[in-house]
Amino acid sequence: MKTQLPPMYSERWTSASELAIACNNNTSFFFATPTQTMFAEGVRSRLPQSSRMTNTSNLPQQAREFLQQQMQNYWCPTLLVGAIPFDDSAAVNLFVPDRLHRAQPLTNPAAVSGLGVARPSQSIAIPDPTTYQENVAQGLALIDQSELLKVVLSRSLELSFSDDIDFGQLIGNLANSNRHGYTYLIDLVDAIDSPPSQLSQASSVPPHKLIGASPELLVRRRGLKVEANPLAGSVALSGDPDRDSQQAYALLNSKKDRYEHAVVVEAVANALRPFCDYLNVPSIPSIIETDTMMHLSTQIKGNLHDPEICALSVALALHPTPAVCGAPPEQAYDAIKTIESFSRRYFTGMVGWMDDHGDGEWAVTIRCGEARGRCLRLYAGAGVVAGSSPAKELAETSAKLRTMLKALGLNDLLEVSI
User: Fold this and answer.
1) Residue 203 region, left (φ>0) first, then alpha (ψ -120 to 50), else beta?
2) Which of 3, 24, 44, 281 has the lowest CB atom count within 10 Å?
């Protein structure tokens, strides 16, 4: 017997700004992209996927069967939303929301901005800046001594607050500053998972959220059309238009950054080709800007040869790209596991949605933090290739951390604390 529930798609809010303003600590999913804004309340049903990221070969089929079953049960269109981790350090977290609201892209994010976050009582860099530079040097040695071409090495900043984090204000600030990217908030409370080792150990169930503003589209699938937008090769924005114009020219003509970018684009294109009967890969990258960074960007577009190929299948074939892992992927992954002193969990994974037709949109989970209770761990990484400088890679991660720090009102924290 079918269970009749209120329509999953609601017209309760009519504007993207209203959806963003409605975000609070009980929001299960928020995703503001260049194509739409999504806001979800509650969790109707969670994908029964308790295994970690050791084997995702059956995940797309499992997801499509799960969506079809949900449609049969509840008489309404259904979306699967959530996050998939970088590796097996966290669980796949995909669910059907109880109620989902959709609107056009967020065109007036200033209307939802409202900074009000206190300074943290404690901040811990993991690893510390000196160790991170030593990690980069270790990565460079591996590149020099092996077949490794690129490895992305990351670091984290763990913040502890005296008061509860207001995720509604935080997501508003992120959306205000990152209107051209992918701003997201995902409830992880019910995920089959274990907390980061140094996060809150409160006896009650604290808020557990993944939050961030990614500039990078992993894949978008609409019917037979598919798009990817790999980013690699970066420099921090200075805030001075003349200087930033010079930096853009230098980035476009940097041998080191163009090489780093080309490695990523080639890998993404090679992963897409088996799915496509047509693929357009521009030969020259362009520049894309966030509130803190400037990146080399390539817009790749193609046509799928089979309508049964879903967005999640393509996303998992691309993930992880050399932009967040390295190349060749196996060697880079091993290097990350050897060098990095913490688990990435959802950082450099993917966040997004897929519907019962196989359409979907997945962004790379970067410029993010994972919160549990009053503790928030931020993440940032940098691509290491031959010619990289440990000091410059450290500076790049600091600039990337500022996306979240700026939204928290803590733009000066790195200079003060590290």
Assistant:
1) alpha
2) 3
